[in-house]
Amino acid sequence: MIVDGGGTARQTGNRSATKRFKVSATQLRALKRELTAARFSSLKRTYRPAYTVADGITEVVTYKGRAVSVSTGAKVPKRLDRVLSRLARLMR
């Protein structure tokens, strides 16, 4: 999913067509707050679990040019978990 600074979102998946929608101003402010609080520049670039999870997925969040990938089962800082949770709630 891509959310631009104006709240226009585009969500793609491997089995479905691209969905376009508008994130409300309230949701966008909350997302920006979570992204700022996550302090992206201090996060590791990759979070992986000790053991690979069968049928797991990897999510990549890019903010201000820095990409952070998180694989299913990985332990992540609470501040990053809040961002992932917020993005999951935005998906349709």
Characterize the structure shown.
By secondary structure, this protein is α+β, with helices and mostly antiparallel strands. The chain has one domain (2-90). The protein has helices at 25-37, 78-90; strands spanning 2-3, 8-11, 19-22, 46-47, 58-63, 66-71. It has a three-stranded antiparallel beta sheet with strand order 1-2-3, with no helix packed on it. Helix 1 runs antiparallel to helix 2. The model has no long low-confidence stretch (mean pLDDT 92).
Q: Determine Rg (CA atoms, Å).
A: 14 Å
Determine the fraction of residues in helical runs and give it as a percent range: 25-40%
Please state how the strands of the largest beta sheet are arranged side by side: 1-2-3
Structural class: alpha+beta
Largest sheet: number of strands, sense, barrel closure: 3 strands, antiparallel
Q: List the secondary-structure elements in sequence, H or E.
A: EEEHEEEH
Average pLDDT rating: 92
How many domains in all? 1
Summarize the structure.
The chain has 92 residues and is α+β, with helices and mostly antiparallel strands. Helices cover 28% and strands 26% of the residues. It has a three-stranded antiparallel beta sheet, with no helix packed on it. The chain has a three-stranded mixed beta sheet with strand order 4-6-5, with no helix packed on it.
